[in-house]
Design brief:
With 326 residues, the protein is of the alpha/beta class. It contains ten helices and 14 strands. Strands 1, 2, 3, 4, 5, 6, 7, 12, 13 and 14 form a ten-stranded mixed sheet that branches. The chain is globular and about 50 Å long.
């Protein structure tokens, strides 16, 4: 089985200098690619001088995570793609458990390893922790991380198990699966696109797994920090896009409740004097309304499966019932 590790880069020369060495050292038997999204910081020249064994793919524009990978992966020949953020440190033998799972279970289409915090290596990392799930209203959470509560890694998630979505920070996917799903939705630009991909995979009958015997360390927020209103905008907008396209049943009932919950979040931003984030939520909703007709057209073409959630409302569970751990 040929694995291609593909790192998407945009003006990330410092991250490549820090983290690419571990990828080169510990990725035995895999091909290493860096897909550059039209960087202007000298990343390409740096790669050519310092990492000649890494194959460079030069995208002509910065189309974000979704378009960047869609364009780059057309040029990659492999059985399995590993989509790896440039701010991840990998560990010895990290690929072996992943390869073993793919080879022994043909039904496994997508895999995420254990994602720990590079800044606090005893704890899980926000972006994916020990595998992702979603509630009825489209709010994402993880084993090991619910909202801003992050668990310490005490071996409680050293298993291999089915999950609903795998983090885009380190996502393995069979090439055949990626192509059958037509890749990422490029309208997302960044954030939530991997959840949309995994939900479409779920609806199409593919299985997503978490393999806890493979570990990577993620910095997180290296491109867009949590304090950036653009991240708030993309997360709120793209989660609405995702649930509209993929959720089964009476959509407008789900969307109405979701919009109310978003409104409460927006008011919290407002009363906390985070005015830019409050405006970002409003912008996200207006963008959603503007794209609703196209989303409903897309919805007609996607298969739907029930039982996509195991928690009806993670908001209720966390904020009302005070359940902070998975």
């Amino acid at each position: 089985m040929k694995i291609a590790v593909v790192i998407l880069n945009w003006n990330g020369q410092q991250l490549l200098e820090q983290f690419l060495p571990s990828v080169m050292q510990y990725s035995e038997g895999a091909d290493i690619y860096v897909a550059d999204n039209a960087s202007t910081d000298g990343s390409v020249a740096f790669l050519k001088s310092n990492f000649p064994k890494a194959t460079i793919i030069q995208n002509t524009t910065n189309g974000g995570y979704a378009k960047g990978y869609n364009d780059a992966l057309k040029q990659v020949k492999a059985d399995v793609f590993c989509l790896l953020n440039s701010d991840i440190e990998v560990t010895p033998n990290w690929l072996n458990p992943i390869r073993s799972e793919f080879e022994s279970n043909i039904s496994t289409a997508i895999i995420q390893p254990k994602l720990l915090d590079h800044k606090n290596k005893s704890h899980f990392e926000y972006a994916g922790a020990a595998g992702g799930f979603i509630d009825k209203y489209g709010y994402a959470y993880c084993r090991g991380r619910i909202f801003d509560t992050i668990e310490k890694d005490d071996g409680q998630y050293n298993d291999t198990t089915s999950i609903f979505w795998a983090s885009g920070a380190c996502l393995f996917i069979r090439k055949s699966t990626f192509e059958s799903l037509n890749g990422f939705d490029e309208s997302y630009f960044a954030h939530f696109e991997e959840i949309d991909l995994c939900w479409r995979a779920f609806n199409a009958g593919f299985n997503t797994k978490y393999v806890g015997s493979s570990t990577v360390y993620h910095v997180g927020g290296a491109t867009l920090k949590a304090t950036n209103p653009k991240k708030t905008y993309l997360n709120f907008r793209n989660s609405l896009f995702t649930i509209t396209k993929n959720a089964p049943g009476f959509l407008f009932g789900i969307i109405f409740i979701r919009l109310v919950l978003d409104g409460i979040a927006g008011l919290k931003f407002l009363f906390s004097f985070k005015f830019a984030h409050f405006v970002a939520v409003l912008r996200a909703h207006f963008s959603f309304y503007g794209n609703l007709s196209e989303l409903l057209i897309q919805r007609k073409h996607f298969p739907k499966k029930k039982d996509y959630y195991n928690t009806k409302s993670i908001v209720w569970s966390y904020f009302v019932r005070k359940r902070y751990n998975y």
